[in-house]
Write a structure and sequence with these properties.
- The chain contains 13 helices and four strands.
- It starts with 24 loop residues before the first strand and ends with a helix.
- It is mostly helical and 301 residues long.
- The strands form two sheets. A two-stranded antiparallel sheet has the order 1-2. A two-stranded antiparallel ribbon has the order 3-4.
């Protein structure tokens, strides 16, 4: 094509109802060309008069939104447990907190129970508020089943992160590396509590959801929330579980890819996510066994 050969744009197709008029749109159902006068606004795009007359009445966002009942129940359980544990908090943490050594001895339930325990009013309030806000957003879109599976996967990922770092601390010289060791090294005898892993998982899923919609998550409130919490995690790593937060975030990103599907595939997505969550819980338990074996080998017992 030479510099002077300018292509002539093709003429628009005629409206199938009024051939003398150019079609500016296509029906979102039958895809036939229609003119502006025949276009009828629909829930998605525009429809021709024939399709619109037989269409299912549009539902409003309020009518299709799912009440976040699972979120409300989870927050209620966390609040109730926090109140009850004030009677003997240290004893409760010792028996139900995430202690890698105990998990390696078969007490796998700690991977779950630890996620509902909190060390103080600020701790439980922070996680409770984040869980409530994220739950309102995600459960309303995903439904109860997929949301609960996503919560479980985030909790499992957080537990795997804690177990993984404790195993690395025992089996490698990572604790002796300046700065890095101070941030991520953790004792297998230490106790971790809190729903932060699950909450980070929800944030990770929200990030994936925004990317799927073509939105840059790092320029939104969710992205800012994730980055801010990661910075806080690193700065206050002496009091915050780095493995729990990062593990939950990565698991949530994986969960986002599993649960963010069409509604007709939601049941299958929830089942698959539950299977993955159980697999992650098992992997965390096996890491506990491996960590205990490494401790015995190091001390020659």
């Amino acid at each position: 094509m030479s510099d002077y050969d300018v292509p002539t744009p093709s003429a628009p197709a005629p409206c199938y109802l009024h051939p003398d008029r150019p079609a500016l749109l296509r029906c979102s159902r039958c895809e036939r060309p229609i003119c502006g006068a025949d276009a009828i606004e629909a829930p998605v795009g525009y429809q021709c008069p024939e399709c619109a007359s037989g269409a299912i009445p549009a539902r409003t966002l309020r009518s299709i939104a799912t009440t976040p009942r699972v979120t409300q129940i989870l927050v209620g359980i966390i609040a109730a447990i926090f109140v009850l544990t004030q009677i003997d908090q240290s004893g409760t943490f010792l028996n139900f907190g995430l202690r890698p050594i105990d998990v390696g001895q078969g007490q796998w339930w700690r991977l779950i129970t630890s996620g509902f325990l909190h060390a103080g009013i600020v701790h439980v309030a922070f996680n409770g508020i984040l869980l409530w806000r994220l739950g309102e957003m995600l459960e309303s879109a995903l439904g109860h089943g997929r949301f609960l599976a996503l919560f479980a996967l985030g909790l499992a990922g957080g537990g795997l992160g804690v177990m993984g770092l404790s195993w690395m601390t025992v089996a490698t010289p990572i604790a002796g590396i300046p700065v890095i060791g101070a941030i991520i090294a953790t004792s297998p005898a230490g106790i971790t509590v809190g729903a932060s892993g699950a909450v980070f998982g929800l944030m990770g899923a929200a990030v994936v959801g925004m990317r799927n919609r073509g939105i840059n998550p790092w320029r939104t409130d969710i992205g800012t929330l994730v980055l801010l919490n990661l910075v806080i995690t690193v700065v206050f790593s002496s009091f915050i579980s780095v493995g729990g937060h990062v593990g939950g975030l990565l698991a949530g990103m994986l969960g986002g890819r599993l649960v963010l599907v069409a509604r007709d595939q939601s049941r299958r997505a929830a089942i698959v996510t539950w299977i993955v969550a159980v697999g992650v819980f098992v992997a965390a338990g096996m890491l506990g066994v491996a960590g205990n074996a490494a401790i015995l080998a190091l001390f020659g017992q």
